[in-house]
TrEMBL record:
Official protein name in the record: Uncharacterized membrane protein YozB (DUF420 family)
Transmembrane segments: 21-40, 60-80, 100-121, 127-146, 158-184, 204-221
Keywords assigned by UniProt, alphabetized: Membrane, Transmembrane, Transmembrane helix
Region (Disordered): 233-258
Keyword match rRNA-binding: no
Matching InterPro entries: DUF2306_membrane
Highest classification ranks of the organism: Bacteria, Bacillati, Actinomycetota, Actinomycetes, Streptosporangiales
Keyword check for Transmembrane: yes
Amino acid sequence: MSPDPPPTAPSRVRPLPARPWIGPLALVTAVFLLHALPPYVGLDPGEARNAVPESAPPYYYPVLVAHIFLGAVALVTACLQVWPRLRVRLPAVHRWSGRIYVLAALPTGIAVLAITPYVQMGPNQQVGNAVAAALWIASTVFGYRAARRRDFTRHREWMVRSFALAFSIVANRIWLMLSMAVFAPEVLTGGRPDLEALRQAVGVSAWMSWVVNLIVAELWLGRIRDRQARAGAAAAAPRRERAGAVSAPAGEGRSSHA
Ligand code: HEM
């Protein structure tokens, strides 16, 4: 493993109009939560969107409910964390909502590991969920630890990955519809799908939801790294020229700028 780079200062934040996705992200999150939470508010297992599996242990439903409500807290605080104005104008609120995000995301991810062995759509779905949850937990821990040692570059990178994994649950709603359309179209037309086709659709959507989000996050981080490298090189060039002019013999300096 390469040694950690020295601590870095938080990067300057661009003005809000350069981040046009903040509003849509908050809206999509609100729509998702308003649709996802109601069946669980009454704490009645009979109301659950997917029936509690018969093979599930007694802890399944309470852990599922904790997963859902803590997951909601994680999504709301993630929206606050990526809101540049809040970060700049109210840094204390940013810090506190960041702590709440970590405290909500970790048990939400751990709950996935506890419930996914019992979900009904087979190993493809179970493994896809478990890998997503493990990566979500790991990236959140790495992001938190980077912030503690004030390495804000690494902190931001790990937290972008963590948020991409958190929002995989929102993306899952879209991937599920697409997978159903491809593998089990009968579901969308009110027919009775084949169980294997249904498992295929749910399994594929379980993987696509987070793999695509992570790819997008990595591409975005790569672009930021390139931009920062170019900005760093552009800032260093005049300094190098000035240093060269000072250290070069007088005649040489004059001829090079002729
Ligand atoms: C990596 C992230 C996540 C994974 C892998 C994951 C996985 C799971 C699993 C395995 C279930 C049980 C599925 C079943 O009942 O058959 C579930 C249910 C649920 N999860 Fe998550 N979850 C994640 C994040 C979240 C977040 C952030 C929320 C936000 C509220 C959330 C909300 C729900 C809801 C509402 C259910 C109930 C079933 C449904 O409506 O689809 N999950 N999740």
